[in-house]
Description:
Layout: H1 2-29, H2 37-54, H3 65-86, H4 92-124, H5 131-148, H6 158-176
Helix pairs in contact: 1-2, 1-3, 1-4, 2-3, 3-4, 4-5, 4-6, 5-6
Amino acid sequence: xxxxxxxxxxxxxxxxxxxxxxxxxxxxxxxxxxxxxxxxxxxxxxxxxxxxxxxxxxxxxxxxxxxxxxxxxxxxxxxxxxxxxxxxxxxxxxxxxxxxxxxxxxxxxxxxxxxxxxxxxxxxxxxxxxxxxxxxxxxxxxxxxxxxxxxxxxxxxxxxxxxxxxxxxxxxxxxxx
Length: 177
């Protein structure tokens, strides 16, 4: 019982910070503005981790490698701690690989969340102050699909198609491990 509680707490705390670091990485990669409540929260909660690492690890081709490396290292640490709690001893290579797959999986979940919020905003209030943030996060993924899938009766089905594709990717990732 205590082991389950420990694994749950480690998973919760580390997943929170890993998701914030991934959000920061994706915001910069997709050029999502940080001048909004979500962006400011992400910066406020991750800057204490990212700024010291950025002094050592530079960006690469416009990507924030320091943030991505931190997310990966935190995920590796979380896997190692959870394994130690349950008494397992996985190899470092296995931990590194699983953490990498977890980052991909969590990034896909982040995209799913952004798509759902973007769709809700488009139905309720497309001019909401936060709508441009979620549009910027989803547009690079929806744009290629919109070339092949025209709107049907003024209804855009591309978010639904993208969600199906993401779910297929998640199924594939679940079977890789």
